[in-house]
Design a protein that fits this description.
The complex is a heterodimer of chains A (452) and B (166). Chain A is an alpha/beta fold and 452 residues long. Chain A contains 19 helices and 11 strands. Chain A has 3 domains: 212 residues, Rossmann fold, CATH 3.40.50; 100 residues, Ubiquitin-like (UB roll) (Roll), CATH 3.10.20; 96 residues, NADH-ubiquinone oxidoreductase 51kDa subunit, iron-sulphur binding domain (de novo design (two linked rop proteins), Up-down Bundle). Helix content of chain A is 43%, strand content 12%. Classes of the chains: A alpha/beta (452), B alpha+beta (166). Chain A: It catalyses: a quinone + NADH + 5 H(+)(in) = a quinol + NAD(+) + 4 H(+)(out).
Chain lengths: 452, 166
């Protein structure tokens, strides 16, 4: 069994309620942080822990906190990003649904560290029932003296408010989220100024993902150095992985980032293998935006080494032969799946979710969807594949926010690794309507050149 | 004429009180949810103007937000709205088939409402239920692991709920 720091108690009966959560050791980190440590000591522990943002970008959380500006007399805010919308990702939902007090506890400690007296949880609008769960947890914490005025007699005041979004993937981008929190369209802002200097209502703001803030609880309880001992290299602590697609046991798993991708897919403790006795064809290991990999490059790196479920190993080989940990949305495709059709589905998603602010993204995502549709439905030309490549190149890096990159990468990776499947669609349009390309050579061992 | 009831007004005030003085516009998204739930499941121009007046902002500020987010309905919808996810992970688990089946069963295409005003079928993009696919949102909750049989049961459930209301 792997180490569990976040979900260990998630299935204790009644853990959703304060009394049970408290009895199981909950809110100890608030007592420790507020009574025995100061804000700076908390930031130091988080820095020492090596905790990296769990939303997708993987930026060191302690460093992000240390950037917050502290102008005299200007309130600061912590905002929790619960706008979980990256296809394949449903880990934050799981955490909030089953063990909401863990998030509230992490929010209180983090609010104290950052000096936020009014902290906001921005949750995607569709998670409507989770709003009730969170508000219940907040009111219980308040009734027990962990929120409100003069928390535990320390003089620290803090309230947590839950705001629902209304259906927009882009609001997971932190500056779009801030705009949305201000009651506007979710158009990302140009940085700088960064939110740490001018965020919500032009006040210094830190935006962190749900899982990141929950991880502050074990970090305070065990100490940053102990936390950093779990995992490997710069992948410290545990990570929630939401696994979906053609596997036997879809769900949310907490891993300590030392297990191999192969073990994660085939072990009964995790995904339990490919469903219906099929073979693995491809996988997107970190949410729909990150590069898709064929089975052979997923399980082993281009150098022939075992690939592990951590930040460094998943990105080994760069985009040429690797992928990314991203948000931990692990999407598995079996041998019957069509990579062209799947890429089209993702392209439609990004076209739908582009905010329309930057023309490369607004126009490019539409063109990519249109061209992919032609290829999928037997009306494509071979030159369309190069055209797709050209369009994604012109989106990447040319937009205000990373949605452009997120839309470009899945198309690029699909062409990079599955070009022959695209060509087969173009060259055999009628056959491609009848059957899928199948596994082909995508699981064959990769030839590793001998090193001199 | 649209006007919040006393209970709705109390909720409106609670929502606005969460933001700093003078930043009441921040409550716009939650207030639009409240208005949509209160006034027939969609946002008419009259409803949006009322929200603008309540928040002391201009109507255009409400329109531009209402048209940006996918959860706000700008046209009347059926009593029960089936919002079926069609993004990658759901597609891998057969959402195309579920969408086609619902359409066939209700005699409507995605985006349409049945002539009796009972059902609307809408395709949506990833709702964060990828491990429990295929799925749909129905009101405040998710219906997951959908099969044809489950769809039949949900339609029956809605019909009998509606019959009991009359």
């Amino acid at each position: 069994m792997s180490i569990k720091l976040l979900l260990e108690k998630a299935h204790v009966e009644g853990i959703r309620y304060f009394d049970v959560y408290r009895r199981e050791g909950g809110y100890r980190s608030v007592e420790k942080a507020l009574k025995e440590m100061g804000p700076e000591a908390i930031v130091e522990e988080v820095k020492k822990s090596g905790l990296r943002g769990r939303g997708g970008a993987g930026f060191p959380a302690g460093m992000k906190w240390s950037f917050i500006a502290k102008p005299e007399g200007v309130p600061r805010h912590l905002v929790c990003n619960a706008d979980e919308s990256e296809p394949g990702t449903f880990k934050d939902r799981y955490l909030m649904e089953f063990i909401p007090h863990l998030l509230i506890e992490g929010l209180i400690v983090s609010s104290f560290a950052l000096g936020s007296n009014d902290t906001y949880i921005y949750i995607r609008g569709e998670y409507a029932w989770i709003v009730d769960i969170l508000e219940q947890a907040i009111s219980e914490a308040k009734n027990n003296g962990f929120l409100g005025n003069n928390i535990l007699g320390t003089g620290f005041n803090c309230n947590i408010h839950v705001q629902r979004g209304a259906g927009a993937y882009i609001c997971g981008e932190e500056t779009a989220l801030i705009e949305s929190l201000e009651g506007k369209r979710g158009n990302p802002r140009i940085k700088p100024p960064f939110p740490a200097v001018q965020g919500v209502w032009m006040r210094p703001t830190v935006v962190n993902n749900v899982e990141t803030l929950a991880a502050v609880v074990p970090i305070i309880n065990m100490g940053g150095e102990e936390y950093a001992k779990i995992g490997v290299g710069r992948s410290t602590g545990t990570k929630l992985i939401s696994a979906c697609g053609n596997i036997n046991k879809p769900g949310v798993y907490e891993i300590d980032m030392t297990i191999s991708v192969e073990e994660f897919i085939y072990s009964d403790e995790y995904c339990g293998g490919i469903a219906n006795g099929k073979k693995l064809k491809a996988c997107i290991p970190g949410g729909s935006s990150v590069p898709i990999l064929p089975a052979n490059l997923l399980l082993k790196t281009a150098k022939g080494e075992t690939r592990y479920m951590n930040y460094e190993s998943l990105s080994d080989g760069g985009f040429a032969t690797g992928s990314m940990m991203g948000s931990g949305g692990f999407i598995v495709l079996d041998e019957d799946q069509c990579v062209v059709r799947h890429t089209l589905s993702l392209a439609r998603f990004y076209r739908h979710e582009s905010c329309g602010q930057c023309s490369p993204c607004r126009e490019g995502t539409g063109w990519m969807e249109k061209i992919l549709k032609n290829i999928e439905y037997g009306k494509g030309k071979l030159s369309d594949i190069d055209l797709l490549w050209d369009i994604q190149r012109k989106i990447e890096g040319n937009t205000i926010c990373p949605l452009g990159d997120a839309a470009a990468w899945p198309v690029a990776a699909a062409i990079r690794h599955f070009r022959d499947e695209f060509e087969w669609h173009v060259l055999h349009p009628e056959e491609a309507q009848q059957r899928n390309y199948g596994l082909a050579h995508y699981a064959d061992p990769i030839h590793v050149p001998a090193t001199a | 004429m649209v006007k919040f009831s006393e209970e709705q007004l109390a909720e409106f005030n609670r929502l606005v009180s969460r933001y700093p003085e003078g930043k009441q516009k921040s409550a716009l998204l939650p207030v639009l949810h409240l208005a949509q739930d209160s006034f027939g499941g969609w946002l008419s121009a009259e409803t949006m103007d009322y929200v603008a007046e309540m928040l002391q902002i201009s109507s255009i500020e409400v329109y531009e937000v209402a048209t940006f987010y996918s959860m706000y309905n700008l046209k009347p919808v059926g009593k029960y709205m089936f919002e079926v996810c069609q993004t990658g992970p759901c597609m891998l688990r057969g959402s195309d088939d579920i969408i086609a089946y619902i359409g066939e069963k209700l005699g409507i295409k995605p985006g349409e409402t049945t002539s009796d005003g009972m059902f609307t079928l809408k395709t949506v993009e990833c709702l964060g239920a990828c491990g429990y696919a295929p799925m749909m949102q129905l009101g405040k909750h998710y219906r997951e692991h959908l099969t044809r049989e489950k769809v039949d049961a949900i339609i029956e459930e809605c019909r009998s709920k509606a019959a009991n209301m009359n």
